[in-house]
Hints:
Layout: E1 29-30, E2 38-43, H1 47-60, E3 67-72, H2 74-83, E4 86-88, E5 91-93, E6 99-102, H3 104-112, E7 120-124, E8 128-133, E9 153-155, H4 162-178, H5 183-194, E10 196-197, H6 202-211, E11 217-221, H7 222-231, E12 236-240, E13 258-263, H8 271-278, H9 281-289, E14 293-294
Parallel strand pairs: 2-3, 2-6, 9-10, 9-11
Antiparallel strand pairs: 1-3, 4-5, 6-13, 7-13, 7-14, 8-11, 8-12
Helix pairs in contact: 1-9
Amino acid sequence: MLDWPPETVMEKNAVQPWYQAGSNQVLDFHGDPLKAELVVFSDGNHHMALRDALKAFYQRHPRLSDIFYATTPPYPIVKLLQEGAIRIGNLTLSVQPHVFIGPPHVLDRLQILGHIKSHVGLAKNQGSVLLIPRDNPKNIRALQDLMRRDVRLFISNPETERTSYNGYRTTLESMVGSQGLNLDAFCAAVFDRTAVYGQCIHHREAPEAIANGQADVAIVYYHLAMRYKRLFPDQFDMIPLGGSEQNPIPPLENLTNRIHMGLVGNGGTWGEPFMTFMQGDSVGHIYEHHGLIPIVNEF
């Protein structure tokens, strides 16, 4: 198992941790929901940037008792918003957000349902790359290598993470076509024969699958691969799908996605100040550091 670092906004050393790395840990719910005066629900692929932004917000407003934030795929946090509770193992969590962050189409739906009045742009990613083990034992160099019978590609689940799965698959199919490879043969060799599908949280499952030897390569967003390399430099490397590792320039075939945010209800005391803060230059620099591109005022 990968040794993920703590990702809470407030690092309170006096709080006793309780988890077992192989069977009993909760990585994508952060903070104390009972004390929190600001609650943020967000899709998880930019969790590293969001955490740093929340820490910066807290440093400006230290009288905040706590910040609670979730970084799962959109589906569970949408259900939590709608139904008011979610069960995590034997724990039932009942909490409502002040701010919701996610793909624009998800926030469009929340707007139709009356949970938010509007939403604005926060950031966009820089396309996808191939994540591989640092020593690259299968000598994977290009997309055609994914067609080999001895190469297993990890990709997010088509049912529980439709947004990322559809984006990843469309990117692969479009780039295969642009490179003159046979698309039908590629799909049959990869998706029908050797692909390893995640269960529900690919931003944790993809590196775990490679580290544990369950997959040989994964398709992930560029900024996720950057995060894994920074955390575990001896375990991972990436193969760009356009541009370079230092300067990704995704071609049109390598789809990019946007992240939006909206105030839930009246946002409580801290929701609106947090939204304003998230559109500032300091947060823009944080997202750039983590491999994303800030955007503002985009509906």
